[in-house]
Amino acid sequence: ALVSVIATLASSLKGTIVDTVGEEVIADFQVQPSGFGDPTSTGVPASLPGEIAELPGIETVSIYRIGAWRNPDTLSQDFLIGVDENLEQVVRLEMEAGSFADLRDGTVGIWKPYAEDNALGIGDTVRVEFNDGTIIEPTVAFIYGAELFSTNLILPMETYEEHFDNRLAAMAMMTVIEGADPEAVRPSIQA
Length: 191
Hints:
Elements: H1 2-24, E1 29-31, H2 48-53, E2 58-70, E3 77-83, E4 95-98, E5 107-111, H3 112-117, E6 128-130, E7 135-136, E8 139-144, E9 153-156, H4 157-163, E10 171-176, H5 182-190
Parallel strand pairs: 3-9, 5-8
Antiparallel strand pairs: 1-10, 2-3, 2-6, 2-10, 4-8, 5-9, 6-7
């Protein structure tokens, strides 16, 4: 009976994940590492997104990186992501307040449930402690509702790189030039 419950749960979760990805991902393609490992230390080589951007038919490439953080007040630990300026061109963040365009060093985007649980809004600060021992207090630039990343914080890549050595991208997502056939572009990406 337990196996049946687990199989049903797994099937249900898979459907939910597929639905969420389908609704939130705008990208035509995604490149990610094969297999499973520690998301803070595995990923796509740093040079690959730049190489993909040069391929014919590709319009936008965006990457994100994953890191660990903790709240120095509650000592709760979680993951965050560092993103580049193109993220909103490949993912629907489902903005609740603020603007992705306001994300820069010294700011942070926060997930709606985290904002609600901690009574945070635009202009408030969040205390973030990194594994290097540094504590920062970025200002909330936007609140998003997308569930794709399952993380409470989105940092600009420049802030991420100040505190993490990992230069591997958890994933590279890309769109093709408007009017291009994604299936015609696919072979150059797979090469």
